[in-house]
Amino acid sequence: MNRTQFLVALSALPLTGAIAKPSALRVFADTLDSTDKMPVLFLGHGSPMNAIEDNEFVRGFKKIGQEIEKPRAILVISAHWETRGTYVTAMENPMTIHDFGGFPQALFDVQYPAPGSPELALLTKDIIKSTEVHLDEKWGLDHGSWSVIKHLYPNADVPVIQMSIDYTQPASYHYALAKELAQLRRKGVLIVGSGNIVHNLRMVSWSHIDTAGYAFDWAQQADDRMKKYIMDGNHQALIDYKKQGREFELAIPTPEHYLPLLYSLALQDKNEDIHIFNDQAVAGSLTMTSLKIG
């Protein structure tokens, strides 16, 4: 079944009911031959300016893109798409969203015209059983997605979809939901969490905004403890981040930049290696800590 035939089959789903939907999705899933297991990434995306700058973090993204096999598609969980309920983008051509203000025009001029994948969106919806996943035709790719993916795949030739973060749900919900995505790793799909594990914009030291490695004591302590939990495989402590004391409270004043980390860690298989890169603080209260799993 080619792409056109698949979409035609999908158009009949409302009329043919529950029997046709699994059948159509099964046909699409079967066309994705099993691959070697793709790695999983967590990318500390930091400032939107990383999209157009050449710095050590950008070079770290580019290096990772060169090290891993080119995926068939990418699924991103971005800190910048929060919804009530869970959604996946399902359009053919997602727009580049400039969801920020006060930056140079050159940043607003950036376009990342990667195709979407309605088929992957539907497959993702189908494999998640714990909640209803809604298909979205309006969002596109926000800067948590395109500002880093563009450095991994600058030709915008890999289909990208995004999954939203349900802001009504606790960390344990997101960790469990992510585990349901595991089979996509053997279908050539690169799953990327994009956020920052230490992210407190209210306490940014603007006088140190360009000083890589500058961290307040609490930020460095939180980052170090998070990395120890990560390397020890102690995911429960990270799920229970609200119980970890004052340093974590300051590091995670709101959860949206932290939760993508849990999506990535949930997909770690037993004894699977983790490589930490871009391991630097910025402006006192942010860290760019990034992970490659597998």
Textual characterization of the structure:
The chain has 294 residues and is α/β, with parallel strands linked by helices. It is 36% helix and 17% strand. It has helices spanning 3-11, 13-16, 20-31, 56-67, 105-108, 118-127, 143-152, 171-179, 217-232, 235-239, 246-251, 259-266; strands spanning 40-44, 73-83, 86-89, 133-136, 160-166, 189-195, 274-277, 281-282, 286-287, 290-293. The strands form three sheets. It has a six-stranded mixed beta sheet with strand order 5-2-6-1-10-7, sandwiched between helices. Strands 3-4 form a two-stranded parallel ribbon. The longest helix is centred in the C-terminal third of the chain and has 16 residues, at 217-232. The two termini are 32 Å apart. The relative contact order is 0.19. Residues 1-24 have low confidence and may be disordered.
Task: Name a few traits of the molecule.
294 residues; alpha/beta; six-stranded mixed β-sheet; two-stranded parallel sheet; 36% helix; disordered N terminus
Compile the SSE list and pairings:
Blueprint: H1 3-11, H2 13-16, H3 20-31, E1 40-44, H4 56-67, E2 73-83, E3 86-89, H5 105-108, H6 118-127, E4 133-136, H7 143-152, E5 160-166, H8 171-179, E6 189-195, H9 217-232, H10 235-239, H11 246-251, H12 259-266, E7 274-277, E8 281-282, E9 286-287, E10 290-293
Parallel strand pairs: 1-6, 2-5, 2-6, 3-4
Antiparallel strand pairs: 1-10, 7-10, 8-9
